């Protein structure tokens, strides 16, 4: 066999830096957790006592950080859960296009044009009104697990 016969292709994404494992018993309220493959913010945690057959269990009630849906999960407290890597980045608003995309100015001077208007109607009206009035607006973009969304707006 010669070396030219071996071809390796990377077909799978390891998902590195999107999530990391954390013991269920150490996740607290206002922390983050992945439930049903969605990044969520924990709004309630209750822990049951160790039963006759095994582990204490953690009951998580969480809200999806992108669509606001309520999700629940029960995990043995000694087991690991996936925790999403959540980042907040601030950009200056340059433009709002007709098709619902926003144009943002990054810290290094480039433009970011791949982001849609947020799903939250109050944020959308605040964004459009401020932009129409000619205000300089900074938007906070929340990103986790390959998704991004505008989560907050402030006037400069």
UniProtKB/TrEMBL annotation:
Source taxon at top rank: Eukaryota
SMART domains: eIF-5a
GO molecular function: ribosome binding; RNA binding; translation elongation factor activity; translation initiation factor activity
Protein keywords: Hypusine, Initiation factor, Protein biosynthesis
Primary role: Translation factor that promotes translation elongation and termination, particularly upon ribosome stalling at specific amino acid sequence contexts. Binds between the exit (E) and peptidyl (P) site of the ribosome and promotes rescue of stalled ribosome: specifically required for efficient translation of polyproline-containing peptides as well as other motifs that stall the ribosome. Acts as ribosome quality control (RQC) cofactor by joining the RQC complex to facilitate peptidyl transfer during CAT tailing step.
Similarity comment text for this entry: Belongs to the eIF-5A family.
Protein name (record): Eukaryotic translation initiation factor 5A
């Amino acid at each position: 066999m010669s070396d030219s016969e071996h071809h390796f292709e990377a077909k799978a994404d390891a998902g590195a830096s999107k999530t990391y494992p954390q013991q269920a018993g150490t996740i607290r309220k206002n922390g983050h957790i992945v439930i049903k493959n969605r990044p969520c913010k924990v709004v309630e945690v209750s822990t049951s006592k160790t039963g006759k057959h095994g582990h204490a269990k953690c009951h998580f009630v969480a809200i999806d950080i992108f669509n606001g849906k309520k999700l629940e999960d029960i995990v043995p407290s000694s087991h690991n859960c996936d925790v999403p890597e959540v980042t907040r980045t601030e950009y200056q608003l340059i433009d709002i296009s007709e098709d619902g995309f926003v144009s943002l100015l990054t810290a290094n001077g480039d433009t970011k044009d791949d982001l849609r208007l947020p799903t939250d109607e109050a944020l959308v009206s605040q964004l459009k009104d401020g932009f129409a009035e000619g205000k300089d607006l900074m938007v906070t973009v929340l990103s986790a697990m390959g998704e991004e969304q505008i989560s907050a707006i402030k006037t400069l």
